[in-house]
Design brief:
444 residues, mainly alpha, 2 strands, globular
């Protein structure tokens, strides 16, 4: 009895620490940029969550040492096994790239952090949720309460505050841009709220809109208000991949909720969607503003290269890199980390191509398989609202990552994968109950 009580207390402590990270994350870019620009040592401020994660590891290790069922899950889970292979591949290729001078130490450390942090946080959240019900009981507040503040601030940026308001908090060319536009047009300013850019904000809103929609209750003003505000904020990110990603996610959630027999609702959705498509086609044909926003093909832009041209060139460069180096060049040689490398940066505008550039086709394939295994776990728990939200948003975010490096964003990586660990915890509990049953039968 005492051992179970101590395990519960340790799991509860881990849960509280994980909740602190999850709640603060949406404000991470804002506060660290402000603090870093004021006091210096920006990178030190930015790794607060990694430092907290390291402090959580001994607690998680003690919990594993005391719990036989958790150790068995850690050994038997194919997700964890592939995590181990994924980490080993990064380590080996990183050491090789460093020894060959293809990457410097700063870029390598940064790459290992942004590529692997989700592994540790997923496992810690899963262990914490399996030992304590705190995270499972409070996940709605963890997602929606910070999201309400972030969305409100984003709308204030668009409609109330000066376009360069964030420069008062250290935003600028040396930290995070104070504002972003569509093809250098101030008339089409993109809101980023407290995240590090408009595209990361749009990717974050895929999860927020999906959660708000799935938890929507009739005549609930708060849920309806948050969903409406989040949709408006997403529009003004002008992140087209996020728009499509959230449509995919909402379509899946609606389909799972209505079932196959609700053909009238599907017909209504089809008619509305058709009307939107036809209206959009008309606007794109005759409206310059619509062409600027949706196609980014402005004739009045002051930018020497449109965002479409830059993205296409980046994608082509990424494909060529993977074709020439199918085994990869090592972590830190591509993606955001490559901006810290001594070599020219390689930004593919595609997270999967980035992995191919860094850890090869095999490494990218391992990451995709990990996603599929997590998706299977979420599907098996689909009666749980959190699992449905995460599964639908995973499909949408997988599309977003085909046109951006969304998984490299601190907020999205920690938040989504941490919540996924919480949602997958019932698989651990099922194994624990089976083991307890075997032990009881053996004792009898």
């Amino acid at each position: 009895m005492r051992s179970k009580t101590s395990e519960y207390k340790m799991a509860l402590a881990l849960s509280w620490l994980a909740a602190v990270i999850l709640v603060i994350l949406p404000f991470h870019a804002f506060f660290t940029t402000w603090a870093g620009s004021t006091t210096g040592h920006l990178d030190l401020w930015r790794i607060w969550k990694e430092l907290l994660l390291v402090l959580m590891l001994p607690l998680a290790g003690w919990l594993l040492w005391r719990s036989k069922s958790l150790k068995q899950w850690l050994i038997a889970s194919w997700i964890v096994r592939l995590f181990a292979v994924y980490v080993l591949l990064h380590t080996v290729l990183g050491a090789w790239a460093l020894s060959r001078g293809k990457v410097n130490a700063e870029a390598l450390i940064y790459a290992l952090g942004i590529n692997l942090r989700f592994v540790g946080f997923f496992i810690i959240c899963a262990l914490a949720a399996a030992g304590s019900g705190f995270l499972k009981q409070n996940w709605q507040k963890i997602i929606l309460a910070p999201a309400a503040v972030v969305v409100l601030f984003g709308l204030l940026q668009k409609f109330v505050l000066p376009y360069d308001f964030l420069r008062h908090f250290g935003y600028g060319p040396d930290t995070v841009p104070a504002y972003q536009t569509v093809d250098a047009q101030l008339d089409h300013r993109r809101i980023q709220s407290t995240l590090r850019g408009a595209n990361p904000f749009g990717a974050y809103l895929v999860l927020v809109v999906s959660a708000s929609f799935a938890l929507l209750r009739k005549r609930n003003a708060l849920s309806t208000g948050l969903l409406t505000a989040a949709v408006v904020a997403m529009f003004y990110t002008y992140s087209r991949s996020a728009w499509i990603g959230v449509v995919i996610s909402l379509a899946l959630l609606a389909g799972w909720s209505w079932g196959r027999t609700q053909w009238r609702k599907w017909l209504a959705v089809f008619i509305v969607a058709l009307g939107i498509i036809l209206s959009g086609a008309y606007l794109l044909r005759f409206s310059n503003t619509a062409q600027d926003i949706f196609l980014h093909t402005s004739t009045t832009s002051t930018s020497s290269e449109t965002s479409n041209e830059a993205r296409l060139a980046s994608l082509q460069g990424g494909v060529k890199d993977v074709w020439r180096q199918p085994l990869g060049m090592g972590p830190g040689t591509a993606g955001p980390a490559s901006l810290r490398n001594n070599q020219p940066p390689r930004i593919a505008e595609n997270y999967y191509l980035q992995l191919g550039q860094e850890i090869g086709i095999a490494g990218a394939a391992i990451f995709i398989i990990i996603n599929l295994l997590v998706a299977v776990q979420l599907w098996q728990q689909r009666k749980d609202p959190l699992a449905r939200i995460l599964l639908a948003s995973l499909v949408g975010l997988s599309f977003v990552n085909m046109f951006s490096h969304a998984w490299t964003d601190d907020t999205l990586a920690y938040l989504w994968w941490g919540l996924a660990g919480i949602a997958c915890a019932p698989a651990i509990l099922t194994g624990r109950r089976k083991q307890d049953g075997k032990n009881h039968q053996a004792a009898a």
